[in-house]
Amino acid sequence: MPRPPSPSPPPTPWSRWHVAVTETAPRGPLCLSLANTRNWRNAAAPLEHLNAYPDLLRWGERQQLLDAAEALRLTALAASRPRQARAELAATVALREAVYRVFSARAHGRAPPRDDLALFGAGFNDAVGQLELSLEDGKLAPRPRRADGGLEALRVHASLSAVALFTSPQGAKVKECADDRGCGWLFVDTTRNGSRRFCFSNECGNRARQMAFRRRHRPSEEATHDAAHAGAR
Question: What does the alpha-carbon distance between residue 188 and residue 171 come to, in Å, rounded to a whole number?
């Protein structure tokens, strides 16, 4: 039996305000890229790409969040603070897994776990606390309070991305790869009719087409095989 909707909180003077967070992401939402750093997550042997803090920095460089100089600075900082670096990696991985669970649940028509949404909120509040906002060209533009960000810099970006995607129309278009081997890749379906089912057409999608082709032709092949055997008797 479906759970009844939670009652709306009573209005307060703050009810008039609504905050919108928009991510300009030509390569797609950053939080989904983070979620996909664990490949084949639902298979028997998942492939983990974030095993140490330097792995996180390499991901940040690929996402164009860090240039080479900043990556070197954070590498040195992590080496000088190994315990803090391990804790930051663990916090980022925890956020990553929350992103996966939230958007996987939505993709399959389930309610997102409340604890994970609470982690989204906490991460967002922590990120906002490290930013200052200025008016530029009629818009609020975020800037870090410190020019030299700490080890949490990449998690700050990912936390903002998670809230931006969850609260945007794109959030309802997130899907999980339908491959039956446990791919688990998350993506935004931008097709007009919402028909995309697989992570990449030339990978899981191609395998699905090949399997469908074999299923369609197997009955006729078996019938031909049986007829040939019958004629040989």
Answer: 8
